[in-house]
Specification:
It is a single chain. It contains one helix and eight strands; from the N terminus they run H-E-E-E-E-E-E-E-E. The strands form two sheets. The chain has a four-stranded antiparallel beta sheet, with helices on one face. It has one domain: 3-Layer(bab) Sandwich (minor pseudopilin epsh fold). It is elongated and about 85 Å long. The chain is of the alpha+beta class.
Amino acid sequence: MREGSSGFTLLEVMVATAVLALVVALGAPAFDGLMTRARTANAAHLVTASFAQARMEAIRRNRTVTVCPTRDGRTCRRDLDWSEGWLLFVGASADAHPIVPIAVVQERKSLILKATSGRPLIRFRPDGQAEGSNVTLRICDRDGRQLLAEVVLSNSGRTRTARPDGRRCPS
């Protein structure tokens, strides 16, 4: 560089760009893993908080409160896919449509949430107990290959979260 001139040479800019590209290439996979863990924790927290809210509402109102997966925020789905969101409502109508809605949780489609077979919806009785058998919501990556977490709801109405170690997501 000549005396009195300021700026960078083309060689210096190319080296700096190459170093920056290397740092980004090495950091991107780690950042992706961090984002997946954050999305997983958020989804598990939303499910757990929704179950706790439904249980508390059932006790407080002394009425059955239902939690079910939804696609449109107004009606319950009949399958086991909770990925698009779920609905909390007072009552246990035979057709599982909300009578008095409490909350609608819309989940972004960044993860897959599926319930164990035989449990398309969950009902909390006025005593806080969950009707039926235990239910597990499995949180899987968007490809549906890796099981990231599980939220287990017992008959007593209590939830717990489990982090499986690298198991495949059941289909």
